[in-house]
Amino acid sequence: MITIKDLAKAAGVSVTTVSRALNGYSDVNEKTRQKIKKLAQELGYRPNALAQSLVLKKTRTIGVIMSHIRKSEAKDSFAFEVLCGINDRVSELNYEILLFSTNPNKQLNKSYIDLCRERNVDGVILQGLGLSDPYMKEVVSQTNFPSVLIDIPLSGERVGHVTSDNVSGSREAVRHLVELGHRHIIMINGYDEASVSRERLNGYILALQEAGIPYDPSYVYDGNFDEEGGGQCMLRALEEHPQATAVFCASDLMAIGAIEALKRIGKSVPGDVSVVGFDDIPISSYFTPKLTTVRQDKYSLGYQAAQMIVDMLEGMQVKHKVVLSTSLVIRESTGVFQ
Question: For residue 207, how far is the Cα from the chain centroid?
């Protein structure tokens, strides 16, 4: 196996020169750099990643912290698509990722900074955490460690934020229902500690106000972003508001749960109740009826977060907030109010 000493001997230069040439330092003559790179290729030299990290004080590894990775959520590909976007862009930029799963209890046992130091990552992307999770205070208060948050609107000296336009997306969804003639529109939201829940509620309220429909908080239920929660909320909502003819769900999984619940009690979709989701996960276009939903680009959420964290690490000019557009996809689960 060719070592850096062998390469230095073949090139007739010092080990330090070889190291600096291969790691892109500007104080190495370009002719010498090209000679060393050519020799490295010819001799089959492969740099030792551990040695490189000790010299550069960088591991070129990005930590990805995701909350509540569970088998029960396998139907929802949201986190997977985000992770694909992160992985693809990180790989293109010659970095690696290290995935962590967390929850509030784990966060109490080990601090954010301790976790990052132990795993020896250069920066971190966080997704799926609640606003009150212990790590959130640490992320904002620390000033030396770059962090990028997906769908968590916090800011700090070394903190970035990538999200979708949740207000506009939910506003468009509810406006679609209003245009179909619906006036009694239920909202099945996620949970209050998720910032996207608050933003999607704001869009729901805004669309009602624009249509001259009074906002009634009793029409809003929390379904915890899962299928079971969506079904339970749908049944409860119809029991308490039998006049309701439409429902906007803050995720596709909750919308699917709501539709299944409606089927169980003999209600047709969209004949009796129109349903709109949010996310446009793959199953939404295969479900029966095919789900009308708000599409957000999950892959780009991850891709943009990866670009932002690497830009931070490499000292580039960084826009600390990126908001991606959404679009309404009209399928079979919404219809005209009769």
Answer: 25
**Helix, strand and coil percent figures for the chain, each rounded to 5:** 45, 20, 35
Sheet containing strand 321-324, strands side by side: 96-102, 61-67, 123-127, 147-150, 159-164, 321-324
Confirm if 275 and 56 have CB atoms less than 8 A apart: no
CATH 3.40.50.360 fits 4-56, yes or no: no
Q: Which tokens hold the place of 24?
A: 């892109």
User: pLDDT band at residue 54, thresholds of 50, 70 and 90?
Assistant: very low
Residue 296's H or E segment, with its range, is strand 292-296
Per-residue pLDDT of 192-238, as tens digits, reads 889 999 999 999 999 999 999 999 999 999 999 999 999 999 999 99
Domain 166-296 grouped into CATH 3.40.50.2300: yes
Give the closest residue to 325 by CA, choosing from 159, 149, 172, 129. 172
Task: Report the pLDDT value the prediction gives residue 250, as an integer from 0 to 100.
Answer: 98
How many CB atoms are closer than 10 A to CB 299?
17
The reply to whether CATH 3.40.50.2300 applies to domain 61-163+298-324 is yes
Q: What is the pLDDT of residue 41?
A: 86
Structure pTM?
A: 0.82
**What's the rounded mean pLDDT across residues 81-108?**
90
